[in-house]
Amino acid sequence: MTRQRQVIADVLQKAGEHLDAAEVWRRARQQLPGLHLATVYRSLESLKKLGIIDELDLMHYRGTGHYYEARTNKDHIHFTCQRCGGVLEIQTSLFEKLKAQIEGRHGLAIRVARLELGGVCGSCASTENKTPHATA
Ligand SMILES: [Zn+2]
Ligand SMILES: [Zn+2]
C-alpha cells in the first residue's frame, strides 16, 4: 500500500464518523502537506475496491457528495434523518440473517453490503408533534 493510501485509511479509521473527500484531504494533509485532492479521490477509490473503506451517500442530505468510513468486521445499517441530517448507525443480527438468506437462496457470495435508510429521527418526530399547527 502506498504511503498516501495508508495515511488516508488511518484518517478514516481514527475518524469514527463519516467524512467527505474534502475533509479526508484536510486531515491527511497534516501528515502529507503536498497531497492533492485528486490523489485523495484516487486513493479512496482503491481503498474501496480493496474493501478497506465504504462509500455512502447518506441520502444526499448535504448535497451530491459521498462519505467514507472505515469498514468494520460487522456491517451496519445507516439511517439519515432528512430533517436534521443526523446519522444513526444500526447494528442488527437481522442484517446478517438477511445476507445469509440471500446468499443461500441465490447461491452467491456477498462481499459488500450497504443499506441506507432515510426518514425522520425520533427527536425530530417528537418536536414536530409538539409544534402547534397553524391550521385552525
Ligand atoms: Zn432528526
Ligand atoms: Zn457508518
Task: Outline the fold blueprint.
Layout: H1 3-15, E1 19-20, H2 21-28, H3 37-49, E2 53-56, E3 67-70, E4 77-81, E5 87-90, H4 93-106, E6 116-119, H5 122-130
Parallel strand pairs: 4-6
Antiparallel strand pairs: 1-3, 2-3, 4-5
Helix pairs in contact: 1-2, 1-3, 2-3
The structure holds zinc ion (2 copies).
The site of one zinc ion has 5 residues, from loops.
Description:
The protein has helices at 3-15, 21-28, 37-49, 93-106, 122-130, and strands at residues 19-20, 53-56, 67-70, 77-81, 87-90, 116-119. It is of the alpha+beta class. The chain has two domains: 1-71, Arc Repressor Mutant, subunit A (Orthogonal Bundle); 74-136, Dna Ligase, domain 1, CATH 3.30.1490. β4 (77-81) and β5 (87-90) form a beta hairpin. α1 (3-15) crosses α2, α1 (3-15) packs across α3 (37-49) and α2 crosses α3 (37-49). It is flat, with a radius of gyration of 18 Å. One zinc ion binds at residues 18, 69, 76, 78, 89.
The number of E-state strands comes to 6
Integer average pLDDT: 91
Structural class: alpha+beta
The CATH homologous superfamily of the largest domain is termed: Winged helix-like DNA-binding domain superfamily/Winged helix DNA-binding domain
Report the portion of residues in β strands: 15-25%
DSSP helix fraction: 40-55%
Secondary-structure element pattern, one letter each: HEHHEEEEHEH
For the largest beta-sheet, the strand count, sense and barrel status come to: 3 strands, antiparallel
Radius of gyration, in angstroms, nearest whole number:
18 Å
How many individual domains?
A: 2
The N- to C-terminal Cα distance equals: 64 Å
Which regions have little confidence, pLDDT < 50, spanning 5+ residues?
Answer: none
Number of helical stretches of at least 4 residues: 5
